[in-house]
Protein backbone atom coordinates (compact mmCIF):
# COMPACT_ATOMS: atom_id res chain seq x y z
CA UNK A 1 0.00 0.00 0.00
CA UNK A 2 1.18 3.52 -0.77
CA UNK A 3 0.34 6.09 1.94
CA UNK A 4 -0.45 9.71 1.18
CA UNK A 5 -0.22 11.96 4.25
CA UNK A 6 -2.74 14.67 5.01
CA UNK A 7 -1.51 18.13 6.17
CA UNK A 8 -1.77 17.19 9.87
CA UNK A 9 0.29 14.05 9.32
CA UNK A 10 2.77 16.00 7.21
CA UNK A 11 3.28 18.45 10.07
CA UNK A 12 4.06 15.49 12.32
CA UNK A 13 6.44 14.07 9.72
CA UNK A 14 8.37 17.36 9.82
CA UNK A 15 8.79 16.96 13.59
CA UNK A 16 9.98 13.36 13.28
CA UNK A 17 12.33 14.29 10.46
CA UNK A 18 13.93 17.14 12.39
CA UNK A 19 14.35 14.82 15.37
CA UNK A 20 16.16 12.18 13.30
CA UNK A 21 18.33 14.82 11.62
CA UNK A 22 19.24 16.29 14.99
CA UNK A 23 20.01 12.88 16.51
CA UNK A 24 22.32 11.98 13.62
CA UNK A 25 24.11 15.33 13.97
CA UNK A 26 24.61 14.69 17.70
CA UNK A 27 25.78 11.11 17.17
CA UNK A 28 28.14 12.13 14.41
CA UNK A 29 29.66 14.87 16.58
CA UNK A 30 30.18 12.44 19.48
CA UNK A 31 31.51 9.46 17.52
CA UNK A 32 35.29 9.58 17.33
CA UNK A 33 38.42 7.47 17.66
CA UNK A 34 37.97 5.39 20.83
CA UNK A 35 34.16 5.35 20.67
CA UNK A 36 32.64 1.87 20.89
CA UNK A 37 29.73 1.08 18.54
CA UNK A 38 27.76 -0.06 21.60
CA UNK A 39 28.24 3.44 23.11
CA UNK A 40 26.63 4.95 20.00
CA UNK A 41 23.76 2.49 20.36
CA UNK A 42 23.20 3.48 24.02
CA UNK A 43 23.38 7.20 23.21
CA UNK A 44 20.74 6.64 20.53
CA UNK A 45 18.49 4.71 22.91
CA UNK A 46 18.67 7.58 25.41
CA UNK A 47 18.10 10.31 22.82
CA UNK A 48 14.98 8.50 21.57
CA UNK A 49 13.63 7.94 25.09
CA UNK A 50 14.31 11.54 26.19
CA UNK A 51 12.38 12.83 23.16
CA UNK A 52 9.41 10.56 23.85
CA UNK A 53 9.90 8.89 20.48
CA UNK A 54 9.98 5.20 19.52
CA UNK A 55 12.69 3.16 17.82
CA UNK A 56 11.73 1.67 14.44
CA UNK A 57 14.60 -0.80 14.81
CA UNK A 58 14.70 -2.49 18.20
CA UNK A 59 11.79 -4.90 17.64
CA UNK A 60 12.02 -4.95 13.84
CA UNK A 61 12.20 -8.52 12.52
CA UNK A 62 11.95 -8.47 8.69
CA UNK A 63 12.76 -11.40 6.40
CA UNK A 64 16.16 -9.88 5.56
CA UNK A 65 17.47 -10.14 9.14
CA UNK A 66 17.74 -12.83 11.82
CA UNK A 67 15.17 -12.15 14.54
CA UNK A 68 14.56 -8.70 16.06
CA UNK A 69 17.36 -6.18 15.33
CA UNK A 70 17.68 -5.57 19.08
CA UNK A 71 19.47 -2.19 18.72
CA UNK A 72 18.59 1.46 18.13
CA UNK A 73 20.87 2.54 15.30
CA UNK A 74 22.72 0.86 12.44
CA UNK A 75 26.49 1.26 12.71
CA UNK A 76 28.35 0.07 9.61
CA UNK A 77 32.16 0.33 9.50
CA UNK A 78 34.29 0.16 6.30
CA UNK A 79 33.16 -2.99 4.42
CA UNK A 80 29.85 -3.07 6.34
CA UNK A 81 27.24 -1.02 4.45
CA UNK A 82 23.63 -1.81 5.38
CA UNK A 83 21.84 -2.96 8.55
CA UNK A 84 25.06 -2.77 10.56
CA UNK A 85 24.30 -4.29 13.93
CA UNK A 86 26.22 -2.51 16.70
CA UNK A 87 28.78 -4.76 18.41
CA UNK A 88 31.81 -4.45 20.67
CA UNK A 89 34.13 -2.57 18.32
CA UNK A 90 36.13 0.57 19.07
CA UNK A 91 36.47 3.10 16.25
CA UNK A 92 40.00 3.73 14.96
CA UNK A 93 41.66 6.42 12.81
CA UNK A 94 40.40 6.31 9.22
CA UNK A 95 37.33 4.16 9.86
CA UNK A 96 34.47 4.98 7.49
CA UNK A 97 31.33 4.88 9.63
CA UNK A 98 27.71 4.89 8.47
CA UNK A 99 24.99 5.71 10.97
CA UNK A 100 21.46 4.85 9.83
CA UNK A 101 18.55 5.82 12.08
CA UNK A 102 14.77 5.61 11.90
CA UNK A 103 12.41 6.66 14.68
CA UNK A 104 8.71 7.23 15.02
CA UNK A 105 7.08 10.20 16.76
CA UNK A 106 3.30 10.65 17.08
CA UNK A 107 2.79 7.75 14.68
CA UNK A 108 4.99 8.98 11.82
CA UNK A 109 8.44 7.55 11.02
CA UNK A 110 11.49 9.18 9.45
CA UNK A 111 14.69 7.48 8.25
CA UNK A 112 18.12 8.94 7.46
CA UNK A 113 21.72 7.83 7.12
CA UNK A 114 25.09 9.54 7.00
CA UNK A 115 28.62 8.28 6.26
CA UNK A 116 31.83 9.93 7.48
CA UNK A 117 35.45 9.17 8.38
CA UNK A 118 36.59 9.30 12.00
CA UNK A 119 39.97 10.61 13.16
CA UNK A 120 43.01 10.84 10.92
CA UNK A 121 41.76 9.80 7.44
CA UNK A 122 44.98 7.86 6.63
CA UNK A 123 45.87 6.03 3.40
CA UNK A 124 42.28 5.28 2.38
CA UNK A 125 41.20 8.94 2.62
CA UNK A 126 40.72 9.45 -1.12
CA UNK A 127 38.71 6.24 -1.56
CA UNK A 128 36.49 7.02 1.43
CA UNK A 129 35.90 10.58 0.32
CA UNK A 130 34.97 9.50 -3.21
CA UNK A 131 32.49 6.90 -1.94
CA UNK A 132 30.80 9.29 0.47
CA UNK A 133 30.70 12.12 -2.03
CA UNK A 134 29.13 9.91 -4.72
CA UNK A 135 26.29 8.81 -2.41
CA UNK A 136 25.68 12.41 -1.29
CA UNK A 137 25.56 13.68 -4.87
CA UNK A 138 23.30 10.78 -5.91
CA UNK A 139 20.97 11.59 -3.02
CA UNK A 140 20.85 15.26 -4.05
CA UNK A 141 20.11 14.24 -7.66
CA UNK A 142 17.30 11.92 -6.54
CA UNK A 143 15.76 14.69 -4.44
CA UNK A 144 16.08 17.19 -7.31
CA UNK A 145 14.30 14.73 -9.62
CA UNK A 146 11.29 14.48 -7.26
CA UNK A 147 9.50 17.41 -8.88
CA UNK A 148 5.79 17.64 -9.68
CA UNK A 149 4.66 14.86 -11.99
CA UNK A 150 7.85 12.85 -11.64
CA UNK A 151 7.75 9.08 -11.54
CA UNK A 152 9.76 6.76 -9.32
CA UNK A 153 11.84 5.75 -12.35
CA UNK A 154 12.97 9.37 -12.75
CA UNK A 155 14.38 9.35 -9.21
CA UNK A 156 16.02 5.95 -9.68
CA UNK A 157 17.53 7.08 -12.94
CA UNK A 158 18.90 10.28 -11.38
CA UNK A 159 20.46 8.35 -8.49
CA UNK A 160 21.87 5.60 -10.69
CA UNK A 161 23.33 8.03 -13.21
CA UNK A 162 25.45 9.69 -10.53
CA UNK A 163 26.62 6.40 -8.99
CA UNK A 164 27.36 4.88 -12.40
CA UNK A 165 29.22 7.96 -13.68
CA UNK A 166 31.35 7.84 -10.51
CA UNK A 167 32.34 4.33 -11.59
CA UNK A 168 30.53 2.26 -8.98
CA UNK A 169 28.62 -0.95 -9.66
CA UNK A 170 25.01 -0.68 -8.45
CA UNK A 171 23.29 -3.33 -6.33
CA UNK A 172 19.53 -3.52 -6.82
CA UNK A 173 18.62 -5.78 -3.87
CA UNK A 174 18.19 -2.86 -1.44
CA UNK A 175 17.13 0.70 -2.17
CA UNK A 176 14.83 3.45 -1.03
CA UNK A 177 11.22 3.11 0.05
CA UNK A 178 7.98 4.74 0.94
CA UNK A 179 7.66 5.66 4.62
CA UNK A 180 4.89 7.03 6.82
CA UNK A 181 3.01 5.29 9.61
CA UNK A 182 5.63 2.52 9.27
CA UNK A 183 9.30 2.65 8.23
CA UNK A 184 9.25 0.42 5.16
CA UNK A 185 6.42 0.85 2.68
CA UNK A 186 5.76 0.84 -1.03
CA UNK A 187 6.91 2.13 -3.41
CA UNK A 188 10.39 0.62 -3.64
CA UNK A 189 12.91 3.12 -5.04
CA UNK A 190 15.71 1.28 -6.81
CA UNK A 191 19.11 2.98 -6.97
CA UNK A 192 19.05 2.62 -10.74
CA UNK A 193 16.22 2.68 -13.25
CA UNK A 194 14.63 4.04 -16.37
CA UNK A 195 13.07 7.50 -16.50
CA UNK A 196 9.33 7.82 -17.09
CA UNK A 197 8.52 4.48 -15.45
CA UNK A 198 6.74 3.57 -12.27
CA UNK A 199 4.43 5.23 -9.77
CA UNK A 200 3.75 8.93 -10.31
CA UNK A 201 4.59 11.03 -7.23
CA UNK A 202 1.73 12.75 -5.43
CA UNK A 203 1.85 15.53 -2.81
CA UNK A 204 1.81 13.96 0.65
CA UNK A 205 3.95 10.97 -0.33
CA UNK A 206 6.99 10.42 1.90
CA UNK A 207 10.01 8.68 0.44
CA UNK A 208 13.28 7.56 1.99
CA UNK A 209 15.94 7.82 -0.73
CA UNK A 210 19.13 5.94 0.06
CA UNK A 211 21.96 5.57 -2.44
CA UNK A 212 24.77 3.31 -1.22
CA UNK A 213 27.86 1.96 -2.94
CA UNK A 214 30.81 -0.38 -2.62
CA UNK A 215 34.17 0.41 -4.27
CA UNK A 216 34.61 -2.63 -6.49
CA UNK A 217 31.63 -5.00 -6.26
CA UNK A 218 27.84 -5.10 -6.29
CA UNK A 219 27.79 -8.28 -4.21
CA UNK A 220 26.85 -8.41 -0.52
CA UNK A 221 27.62 -11.02 2.12
CA UNK A 222 25.73 -11.43 5.39
CA UNK A 223 27.81 -11.20 8.55
CA UNK A 224 27.68 -14.03 11.11
CA UNK A 225 25.41 -11.75 13.20
CA UNK A 226 22.62 -12.48 10.69
CA UNK A 227 22.05 -8.76 10.01
CA UNK A 228 25.07 -6.77 8.92
CA UNK A 229 25.55 -6.66 5.14
CA UNK A 230 29.16 -6.32 3.99
CA UNK A 231 30.86 -6.00 0.62
CA UNK A 232 31.72 -9.46 -0.76
CA UNK A 233 35.29 -8.32 -1.50
CA UNK A 234 35.93 -6.55 1.82
CA UNK A 235 36.15 -3.18 0.06
CA UNK A 236 34.93 0.08 1.61
CA UNK A 237 31.36 1.29 1.27
CA UNK A 238 29.18 4.36 1.91
CA UNK A 239 25.48 5.19 2.29
CA UNK A 240 23.49 8.46 2.44
CA UNK A 241 19.77 8.73 3.13
CA UNK A 242 17.10 11.38 3.66
CA UNK A 243 13.36 11.19 4.10
CA UNK A 244 11.61 13.64 1.77
CA UNK A 245 8.03 14.80 1.42
CA UNK A 246 6.58 15.33 -2.03
CA UNK A 247 4.86 18.73 -2.16
CA UNK A 248 2.97 20.70 -4.83
CA UNK A 249 6.15 22.27 -6.11
CA UNK A 250 8.91 19.76 -5.48
CA UNK A 251 10.36 17.85 -2.58
CA UNK A 252 11.06 18.94 0.97
CA UNK A 253 13.90 17.27 2.90
CA UNK A 254 12.49 16.33 6.31
CA UNK A 255 15.56 14.79 7.99
CA UNK A 256 17.67 17.91 8.44
CA UNK A 257 18.48 19.16 11.95
CA UNK A 258 16.76 22.42 12.87
N1 LIG B 1 16.88 2.31 8.05
C1 LIG B 1 17.26 1.21 7.21
C2 LIG B 1 16.86 1.65 5.84
O1 LIG B 1 17.46 2.59 5.46
C3 LIG B 1 16.67 -0.08 7.67
C4 LIG B 1 17.36 -0.64 8.82
S1 LIG B 1 16.47 -1.97 9.39
C5 LIG B 1 17.27 -2.50 10.76
O2 LIG B 1 15.90 1.29 5.22
F1 LIG B 1 16.49 -3.33 11.33
F2 LIG B 1 18.40 -2.99 10.40
F3 LIG B 1 17.56 -1.53 11.57
CO1 LIG C 1 15.62 3.51 4.68
From TrEMBL:
<feature type="binding site">
    <location>
        <position position="83"/>
    </location>
    <ligand>
        <name>substrate</name>
    </ligand>
</feature>
<feature type="binding site">
    <location>
        <position position="177"/>
    </location>
    <ligand>
        <name>a divalent metal cation 2</name>
    </ligand>
</feature>
<dbReference type="Pfam" id="PF00557">
    <property type="entry name" value="Peptidase_M24"/>
</dbReference>
<dbReference type="InterPro" id="IPR036005">
    <property type="entry name" value="Creatinase/aminopeptidase-like"/>
</dbReference>
<feature type="binding site">
    <location>
        <position position="111"/>
    </location>
    <ligand>
        <name>a divalent metal cation 2</name>
    </ligand>
</feature>
<comment type="subunit">
    <text>Monomer.</text>
</comment>
<keyword id="KW-0031">Aminopeptidase</keyword>
<feature type="binding site">
    <location>
        <position position="111"/>
    </location>
    <ligand>
        <name>a divalent metal cation 1</name>
    </ligand>
</feature>
<comment type="similarity">
    <text>Belongs to the peptidase M24A family. Methionine aminopeptidase type 1 subfamily.</text>
</comment>
<keyword id="KW-0645">Protease</keyword>
<dbReference type="InterPro" id="IPR001714">
    <property type="entry name" value="Pept_M24_MAP"/>
</dbReference>
<keyword id="KW-0479">Metal-binding</keyword>
<comment type="function">
    <text>Removes the N-terminal methionine from nascent proteins. The N-terminal methionine is often cleaved when the second residue in the primary sequence is small and uncharged (Met-Ala-, Cys, Gly, Pro, Ser, Thr, or Val). Requires deformylation of the N(alpha)-formylated initiator methionine before it can be hydrolyzed.</text>
</comment>
<dbReference type="InterPro" id="IPR000994">
    <property type="entry name" value="Pept_M24"/>
</dbReference>
<dbReference type="GO" id="GO:0004239">
    <property type="term" value="F:initiator methionyl aminopeptidase activity"/>
</dbReference>
<feature type="binding site">
    <location>
        <position position="241"/>
    </location>
    <ligand>
        <name>a divalent metal cation 1</name>
    </ligand>
</feature>
<feature type="domain" description="Peptidase M24">
    <location>
        <begin position="14"/>
        <end position="248"/>
    </location>
</feature>
<dbReference type="InterPro" id="IPR002467">
    <property type="entry name" value="Pept_M24A_MAP1"/>
</dbReference>
<keyword id="KW-0378">Hydrolase</keyword>
<feature type="binding site">
    <location>
        <position position="241"/>
    </location>
    <ligand>
        <name>a divalent metal cation 2</name>
    </ligand>
</feature>
<feature type="binding site">
    <location>
        <position position="100"/>
    </location>
    <ligand>
        <name>a divalent metal cation 1</name>
    </ligand>
</feature>
<protein>
    <recommendedName>
        <fullName>Methionine aminopeptidase</fullName>
        <ecNumber>3.4.11.18</ecNumber>
    </recommendedName>
</protein>
<feature type="binding site">
    <location>
        <position position="210"/>
    </location>
    <ligand>
        <name>a divalent metal cation 2</name>
    </ligand>
</feature>
<feature type="binding site">
    <location>
        <position position="184"/>
    </location>
    <ligand>
        <name>substrate</name>
    </ligand>
</feature>
Amino acid sequence: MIEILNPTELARARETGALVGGFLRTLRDRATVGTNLLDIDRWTRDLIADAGAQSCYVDYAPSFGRGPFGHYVCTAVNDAVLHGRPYDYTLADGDLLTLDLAVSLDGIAADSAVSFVVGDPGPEAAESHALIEATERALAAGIAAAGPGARIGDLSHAIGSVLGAAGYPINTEFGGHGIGSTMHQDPHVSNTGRPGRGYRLRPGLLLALEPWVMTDTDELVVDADGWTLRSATGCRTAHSEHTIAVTDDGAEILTLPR
